[in-house]
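Attaching the record inline, Q. Sequence:
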Amino acid sequence: MDTLTVTTLLIAPISNVVSQTLNNSVQNEEEYHIAVISDVHVMAPSLLIEDGEAMNNYIAHDRKMLRESTVILKVLTDKLIAEHPQIVLITGDLTKDGEAISHQYLVDSCLSRLKEAGIQPLVIPGNHDVNNPHSISFEGKNTKRVQTVSPFDFASIYTEYGYGKAIARDKHSLSYVFEPLGSHLRILAIDACKYEENNFEKNICRHDGRIKPETMNFIKEQITDAKNHGMRVIGMMHHGLVRHWKYQNRIMKGYLIDDWKKQADLLSKEGLEIMFTGHSHAQDISCRKKGKRTIYDVETGSAVTYPSPYRLICVTNDSMKINSKFIEEMPINLNGISFTEHAKQVLMKGAAGFVESTFPTNVPDSIKQSAAFCAGKALIANCRGDEKLSDEDRLDIEQNAKKIKKYSKRYARIFRIVTMVMRNDVFPTDNEFAFQFTLQTTK
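Structure, as predicted:
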C-alpha cells in the first residue's frame, strides 16, 4: 500500500468527524422567528353606528387612526402571513377601548387567520382592554356604553392565543408562560395593567401600570424553572419596563411601570435580558445596565399610529436580530395622498390638539399653534425611531421656547426639554438591532 493511500485512510475518519461536528453545530444553532406588533386598537365597524360629532370629538385629541383600524389590521395580517414567523407577540391595547365586540373582531379577522396559516399569536392585555368604562359606540352626536370584558372574559376570548395552552398561569393577574413547540424559548407574558382600579361612575380608566408583588413572585418562579430546563426566556408586557427618553419617568410616568428601576433590576437579576413592550406608540429600544447585567426594553409602535410598524425577530441559541418594517400603502382612498402622509397628518393633528390644550390661557393662539407644530414634528420623529436632533430642529425648538417664555417660564422649560429629548435618540438603535445573550442556557 503506497504512502498516499495510507494517508488518505488515516485522514478520512478525521475528516468525517470534523464534517459531522460542523453539521451538528449548524443544527444546534436553532433559529426561531418571531413577529411583534402592538397597540392595534381595532374598533369593530358596528360601533360606528353613525359617523359625526361624537366620533370627531373622540379623535380630536387622539393620535390613532381609528376609522382606518380595520383596514390596517387586514393589511397587517396579510403581511404577517406572508412573512410567516412561528409566533406573533401582540403587546397589548388590542382594542379601541375594551369593547367585547372589538375583541371578537380581532379574533375573527386577524388571530384566527394567523392560526390557520400555521402561526401562533400570543396576546397580553393593555390598559384599554379590560373593564374599560370608555367602551362606547358612536351615533351622530351621541355615545352609548357597550359591553366591555372582565379579566375572566379576556382569558376566555383568547384561549387559543396564549391562555389555554399556557404552561403556567398567575393567579393574581392575566400573566402566563407559553412554550412554543420546537423551540428553546419560553414566552413570559406579563399583565401589568390596573383595570381593577377603573371607575365606571367617574368614567376613569387607569393607563399606568405596575407589577404586583404576587405576580413578581410568579415571574421569579417561572424564570428559575425555565433556567432549570435550559430554556431561554423572552418577556412581553404592555407598559414600558425601562425609560425610553430622559425625564419620561417624570413627564409621562404613566407609560412606565411603577418603580421601574427596581422592577427592571429585579428581572435582570433573575436572568431576563429582553422585554417586548408597547403603550407609547413609538419605535424605540432602550436598556438599563446594572453591574455586568443589561436588560433591553424593545418598544414597538402602534399599528394605527404613524409609521404603523411591525418587528421581525430571529432568535438563535445565543443571539437575537431585530428588524423593523412599516405599512406604507393602504387599499383605500385618502383624498389623493399616500397612507404615510395621511398617518403623519393624523398624528400631527392629535399632537396639536393635545399640546395646545396644555398651555396656559394667557399664551396667544398663534404661539400655541407654532409650538404644537414643532412638538408634532418631534413626535413624528420619535414614533419613527432612530431620531437625530439637527441644528435646524434645535433652532426651531429654541425659538418657540423663547416665545413661550414671555408668558410662562415653566411651560417654556417643559416644552424645550420634551421636544429636545424626543428628537435625540441614544444607544441602542431603534429599528435594526442585534445582540448576544450574556446568560447561557444549560440544557
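Residues 42 and 247 are 31 Å apart (CA to CA). The longest helix spans residues 3-28.

More tomorrow.
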